[in-house]
Amino acid sequence: MSTIALVTGAGSGIGKAIALALAARGDKVIAADLDIAAAEATAKEAPELITALPVDVASRAAVDELRDRTVAEVGVPTILVNAAGWDRTDQFLNATPEFAEKVVAINYLGPVHMASAFLPGIIEAGGGQVINLASDAGRVGSSGESIYAGAKGGVIALTKSLAREMARHNITVNCVCPGPTDTPLFQAQDERLKAALIKAIPFRRLARPEEVAAPVLFFASEPAAFITGQVISVSGGLTMAG
What we know:
- The structure is a single chain.
- The protein is α/β, with parallel strands linked by helices.
- Helix content is 47%, strand content 16%.
- The protein has helices at residues 13-24, 36-44, 60-73, 97-107, 109-125, 137-140, 146-166, 184-187, 191-200, 209-219; strands spanning 4-8, 28-33, 50-54, 79-82, 128-133, 171-178, 231-234.
- It is globular and about 50 Å long.
């Protein structure tokens, strides 16, 4: 029986690359995204294995609906990848309360809602893997992304804490922290900022979404069964914090 994986943010960028990589190894994949048309475009690349479903991870009610539809239409996922995220670069003092709440709701509470909704099913299934996508901004800070960095730092702490609680249920919980990656979200940034970031990366280029997907697939594999609560950066050497 095929493993079932659920990936949020699967309509584009890193989430899409993860969904396609999981399908390429034979997993059944639920590609969940706020933009259902984008999720359906992802599913069309492997229609026999990928099912597109809508979700707003900032809404617990929408997450619960996703869980119910997933179980009814595909089955119980034992791999959960929280890849949905959102930000807009600006100085902290320019941030409105509405902006701050949106960043936290999507980037931190999104993984909280998803884990709360789906972990009971993973426990009942006998175990599995949760992989959270955070950011190196959450490890070392990032000028112009203070609220986003705080939310992603929360995801890192959430990962470690859930790993301790879930170990008794044979569930690993790990975290992948991308650096600057060639995604639509990055390309929407100011050109000077993009150029400065690329110049600061030792490899002098952005990560490709497929390169971020690679450690996600490892964490979701049997060889990683004894690895939990860990954080790995995919940043081309931009950050090397201990």
